[in-house]
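Worked example 3 (structure in, sequence out).
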């Protein structure tokens, strides 16, 4: 019987042939296997996992917005593919999406911690942030200055977060440190709980706190618990590294660096576009900007049936009557129309004052038709303005939530009190359109109401003075007239016979 032991040269030959065959098969497999980036381009889709929150992704006026959304969209454009966002309900689901390779990467303002490095690959670092203790200023209660000051307090962090990992790492050194890990909240909700004194402390990133603190007066940060940590996108480990290489190219180019700087300014600046009402600034703009636009407002009011002060006040809240104004999400012009809204009302140039004003009035009219007719005035108008600002879908979410809480969904005051809840994960996670900046439409409508009052006050004051001067045999042009220049011009442009 033949035996390879008897013929060692034959055994060597068989081994060599086997080695050649295996090498050949591996080469064939390599030739027929596309790299990760080639597969993405072939499929034409980049799948990105994210979270529905103000730091990452949300809907604004029915269009996608958010820092991570815009940056992910730019990377997809860089690759020449479409962006497909997959929104996770919480951090654990987000990481599961990546570990199960359901997405190509995850982008949600995530710190690159040692625990995360063990499981996932990280992309280029685009920000640094340190974990800090957040508290509410209370009379007679000093700010914590050491970890021991947190003993015996009501401290909570998000389950699955880097801050939960950090507290666990500190527990050996500080055995009396006790905390709760919340699964039903997001970080913004924890800020709200501290603001309402349901919690004493939380741990959050300095960058996130600085971006959101203006919405929670009285909250402060203190006591950094670790050195600044890098923030980056995360992805599954892949031997070919082609996706990571393309990410590096994308983050290295000047356009991306400029985009990140612009996005951080627009989304995370503490300058809130809906600041408190400023009477002096409004009156200055009334004289410097409004009078040249007023004829457009009068004609748009006549065409749509709205009162012109309402249209003018809305436009001021949107843009301060600046035809070149641009919002963080790219809406622009005096009436701040989105691309979709401009197309709906046949506006071809959103920066043209006449087109913007007429288009905005027509779009407002379209929104008003969606509001149930049974709602009486002025609530019907306030709902219309809120929907113009936040989007009809988010408004309907708020109205349903109002009804669920035993309040009247047809009452603006009731819905107004509920709208801020759209920023809280426990509520928006159950709603059709998800997270929304629910405080904004409240301030938005409040400010428009105040702007209308000032416009009407200016007109009524000028009218009263003009009538008094007429009765005294004087005219508005009389040198002794006390009628304000702005009010007089405003009055005569509306009532030229006076």
């Amino acid at each position: 019987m033949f035996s390879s032991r008897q013929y060692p040269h034959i055994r060597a030959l068989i081994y060599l042939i086997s080695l050649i065959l295996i090498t050949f098969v591996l080469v064939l497999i390599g030739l027929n296997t596309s790299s990760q980036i080639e597969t993405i381009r072939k499929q034409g889709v980049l799948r990105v996992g994210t979270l529905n929150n103000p730091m990452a992704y949300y809907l604004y006026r029915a269009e996608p917005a958010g820092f991570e959304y815009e940056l992910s969209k730019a990377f997809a454009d860089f690759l020449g593919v479409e962006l497909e966002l997959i929104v996770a309900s919480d951090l654990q689901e987000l990481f599961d999406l990546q570990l199960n390779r359901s997405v190509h990467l995850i982008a949600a303002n995530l710190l690159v911690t040692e625990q995360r490095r063990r499981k996932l690959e990280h992309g280029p670092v685009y920000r640094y942030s340190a974990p800090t203790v957040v508290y509410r200023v209370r009379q007679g209660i000093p700010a914590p200055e050491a970890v021991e000051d947190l003993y015996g307090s009501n401290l909570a962090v998000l389950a699955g977060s880097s801050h939960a990992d950090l507290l666990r790492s500190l527990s050996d050194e500080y055995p009396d440190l006790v905390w709760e890990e919340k699964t039903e909240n997001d970080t913004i909700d924890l800020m709200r709980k501290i603001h309402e004194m349901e919690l004493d402390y939380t741990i959050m990133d300095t960058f996130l706190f600085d971006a959101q603190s203006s919405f929670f007066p009285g909250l402060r940060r203190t006591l950094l618990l670790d050195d600044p940590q890098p923030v980056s996108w995360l992805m599954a480990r892949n031997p070919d590294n082609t996706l990571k290489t393309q990410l590096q190219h994308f983050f290295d180019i000047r356009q991306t660096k400029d985009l990140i700087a612009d996005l951080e300014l627009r989304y995370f600046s503490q300058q809130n576009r809906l600041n408190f009402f400023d009477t002096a600034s409004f009156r200055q703009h009334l004289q410097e900007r409004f009078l040249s636009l007023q004829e457009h407002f009068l004609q748009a009011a006549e065409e749509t049936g709205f009162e012109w002060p309402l249209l003018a006040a809305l436009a001021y809240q949107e843009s301060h009557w600046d035809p070149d104004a641009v919002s963080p999400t790219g809406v622009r012009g005096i009436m701040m129309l989105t691309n979709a809204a401009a197309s709906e009302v046949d506006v071809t140039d959103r920066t043209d004052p006449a087109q913007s004003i007429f288009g905005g009035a027509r779009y407002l009219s379209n929104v008003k038709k969606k509001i149930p007719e049974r709602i009486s005035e002025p609530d019907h108008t306030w709902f219309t303005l809120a929907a113009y600002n936040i989007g009809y879908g988010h408004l309907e979410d708020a109205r349903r939530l109002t009804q669920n809480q035993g309040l009247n969904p047809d009452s603006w005051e009731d819905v107004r009190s509920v709208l801020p809840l759209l920023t809280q994960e426990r509520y928006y996670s159950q709603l059709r359109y998800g997270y929304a900046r629910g405080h904004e439409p409240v301030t938005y409508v409040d400010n428009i109401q105040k702007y209308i009052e000032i416009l009407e006050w200016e007109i009524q004051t000028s009218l009263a003075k003009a009538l008094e001067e007429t009765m005294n045999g004087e005219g508005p042009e009389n040198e002794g007239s006390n009628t304000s220049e702005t009010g007089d011009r405003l009055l005569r442009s509306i009532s030229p016979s006076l």
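Notes: The radius of gyration is 30 Å. Residues 152 and 187 are 22 Å apart (CA to CA).
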